[in-house]
Predict the 3D structure of the following.
Amino acid sequence: MSPTDSSAAAPAPALLTVRGLQKSFGSNQVLKSVDLTVARGQVLALIGPSGSGKTTVLRCLNGLEIADGGTIEIVGAEDATHAPVVIDFAPAHGKRAGVPKKALGTLRDRSAMVFQHYNLFPHKTVLENVMEGPVVVQRRPRAEVEAEALQLLDRVGLGDKRDSYPFELSGGQQQRVGIVRALALRPTLLLFDEPTSALDPELVGDVLRLIKELAGEGWTMVIVTHELEFAREVATEVAFVDGGTIVEHGDPKELLRNPQHERTRQFLHRLLFPF
Amino acid sequence: MSDTTWQLMLDSLWPMLSGAIMGTIPLALASFAIGLVLALVLALMRLSRRRWLSSIARVYISIVRGTPLLVQLFVIFYGLPPLGIVIDPWPSAILAFSINVGGYAAEVIRAAILSVPKGQWEAAYMIGMSHQRSLTRIILPQAARVSVPPLSNTFISLVKDTSLASLILVTELFRVAQEIAAFSREFMALYLEAALIYWVICLVLSSGQSVLEKRLDRYVAH
């Protein structure tokens, strides 16, 4: 995340660079100033107490919230047509600046989000949920998208559910469809917003295993999570967010075992010893 | 009741039914169709971030809901001709009922759109949809299911309200009943018969509502 981290090896090119990100809701400043960098193929886990701003960071990365200040730079796929795009949220002339729609569109095109509550489209089948973005928005050929969608569904063990409606699926199955829907968009960055917190405990494993597999395949991800074990095992970097800033970040095993800041220590302690 | 009363009711059945088929039902259908389109536009205006758009819709809805339908009908049919605008009975009736349905259904549709969880908008934006496309492909289909019961209510009310059109010379079910009653003096029998026919129409509509609700059931988040 910081330049010094990569001093040992050749620095991996940053896929995502966030600088000085700010966001307020009314008078409540949720993000004070957030800086982070994610290299291609890295998995960044954001942990922190509720209300710390970690979900807001994620939502800013997908353009679901429009930041009030700071910049987000995101690189496209590894070909020349996908040059890096920098989106500057700095307010112009004291007024709320209109962030260019095109830049915001690029941000959404390049990232895909998996929601805490899945947010599948209830009036569409599993297959339609997955194909909606690629076919309707990206205008890719239907046959090609369908083949790819079915392959992805097979992969997560839901090939036989292609014609089911979301309400016919368990939470774990819905979330796997949510992940497939995100993958089918062919994003360069995958965002997960507490992907297992709405699940029954016995269904959490399947979803975490799938995310771990994706990490192993080299997907670049930012994950907001409360699953510390999962963060330790899957993330390449953990950042502790509190009070709208990143308090500390670093190697997951190191940070979780030996946090440097008092606030991090308290947070980890509360998670490990809830009562 | 005497045999002659029964005979009169039997003889009046067909004229009244044809009044329903030629008058009441087409009047209700046409007004409802036009009213729904108007209502959708008004609902979207109400939800618009542009203040002036939502204000116009708000005032419209307030006037329509705050004044009697009969007054609206009379303003159009009797109030406009002195101003040089003469509209025939049928178009006047359709105009008045459409305007009225538009006002009531707008609030139903607005509430239905607002009832769709915010996460549905977010998922639509996430896959790259514009606001308008999110609305038409993701939000409105779900809002449609939610609005079936209250809109059925609106429609059933409308079917009965079309009887007011008899007061501006439209030949529909109730006007036929009034005409036969006026010369036969059998008010109770004929008005009860008219009431019965309205009731049967509404029963049919109610069962249509259940069928529609079942068919659209999958459109609701469970």
Remarks:
- Chain B has eight helices and no strands.
